[in-house]
Design brief:
By secondary structure, the chain is α/β, with parallel strands linked by helices. 34% of the residues lie in helices and 17% in strands. The strands form 5 sheets. It has a 6-stranded parallel sheet, sandwiched between helices. A 6-stranded parallel sheet has the order 7-10-11-12-13-14.
Amino acid sequence: MSSIKTAKGWQKFWALKKEAPTARAKELDYDGKHTLTLSVLQKYAKNKPQSNLTDVKIEENITKSSSIVFFLLPEWSPNFPPYNLARLAAITKTAGYKTYAYDLNAKASKDFVNWKGLDFNPWDGFRDWKWYGNTYWDELHQYVKPFIDQYVEKMVELNPTAIGFCLYYCNEEPSRYMISALKEKLPNVKILVGGPQSHQSHYVPPQGTDIIIAGEGELLLLEAMEIIEQKRVPNELLWLRQPEGERLNLDNLPSPDYSFFPPSDYKIPNGVTSELSRGCTAKCVFCQETHFWKYRGRMARNVIEEIEDLYYNRGVDVVWFLDSLVNGNLKELRAFCKAIITKGMKIAWTGYARCDGRMDLEYFQDLADSGCINLSYGIESGSNKVLKDMDKGVTVEEIEQNLRDGAITGVEAFANWIVGFPSEGHQEIYESMVLLYRNRNNNLTNVSSGHGFNIPADTIIGQNFKRFNVANSYFEGNWITNDLKNSKLHRLIRLKLFNIFLIHLDNDNGIDFTNRHNIKNSYKLNLIDNIQKHIEFEEFDFNIIQSDLGDFANSAMNELWPLLRLLYKARGAYEIQLIFDPETDYNEFGDRLSCNFNAECYFSIDSQGKYYADLKYKFIQQESPWTYQNFSGGESLAAIRARTLASNNANLLDKDAVWAHEQTLLEKRMSTNLSFDYHYIDSGLWT
């Protein structure tokens, strides 16, 4: 196994793994360090929780007659025990309910190597689409079913009063099956569901559900259990929703109970997940999590106590903070770092963060000295225009500064990317690739290319299509801009080319940025000069193909040029052949992006910039591709908050008139055929 000092990226996590974590004895000078830590915290941290928070009050030392079992079903990360179940189990256990919790996700993930007939890893993040809809039932259910059936029988023996499920978009189908099987064998058991899926507008729960918890779960769960205890569960579906504006006090909750989760079930047995805060200080227009719950942080002293208990009593020394961003409160995060340093606890930790110009080199040094091995940044774009449209509140210049300081101090950077934002065009995706290329040696150890931008309903952009030039008419099941220059076809081409760029993002650390290995079968690239040059940001006219086929076809065919330009500017002379075909693209991207598109492209350029292009494109539009879509009526808390932030005045307009206008546009689009077949041959000179 790689040494932690030489490992990079994900390998650094695996280098931290211990097969059998054990408790530690406290150091001889522990008390002295504790006293010194208190003085450090006094300088940086607050000494009381934020105001206007709601306490979760638990009446302890009372035994209740009801019992509850929590389940997490595949698919989710099996690296660490589930923090949400550990937290909720601690709540019900403290309140006197007999409590059990099972992580079937972790158990199944250990066994999938024995699933004969599969040619992919179902826990690969880029195969998440295999877990929902008909694809799950066709390809995965036969393997997952034995795990579920085994625990259904166990529940028959246990006969609990209630069973709770945490639902994500990628475990809803397995959960749907298990709930049905449980209700068949235990018709009186009460089924509770919560988690991100249950918070969505227009959410339809699995059949057999008795109670839906929409919002932060701790207080609502206690309310649900009290209703069950008093046998007041109504015959119809009961929705329990968190009141608008309520923020739970995270500092008066019992510590998560990990006793239900054997460390050996997880890829990093000596690790856990935790939280420094909930919510986000930013209001990025594409994110519904930031609008689901309002930001509030935990007091650093309480986080330290929790980590310290795990460190000494459970042998935990790897912590992944699940916050939307760990640096939402820069002072409190620094207090945590200073306390860890003062106590001399040798932990490694990571979490999601936003780039922030206020984090200088000295700040990064404190992060590194406290055990921060990397931060997972939501960078999203290398274009200041797109960053502004996203309301990221950060600039390319700040991003580059954070990456440079991280490289100096040893804090690695994981970069999360959004490909195909509505206002991202050819120039903007080019700038994204330029940013990544310029910083490939700045301790950048992972780039997640995502799945192509999708619009969640309960977001600012979902609540105001007009502001972002998004049509209310979806094209082939996915969003399209009103000018037809950003559709699923455009995003398919762009995402595929972006991944080709990542495969060839060569760097001094030997980091492999490949996200989608199968894409290597779709192209051949010969880097003739095989050099790497420093490049600056530039503006370039990518509107090269100008046929009479219209904006949709021309903009799609011109998607190729940003990659071709970047390769020339950075790597010199080369030649490349590219293939697009529907079957290959479906197997890689699913029906979210794949469509009836074929292309054969050849391009070569020499060291002087003389190029030759031979590009063949053919797109066939499916029958009845247009459907009306409007999210503005969402009723979830996230939708309500997002609608307020979106400045959407749709509710003030004549809705009948708006509907009539949209139907007129839809009828016009239904008569439009965007299919095209074009062969482009050209040569020229780039300087």
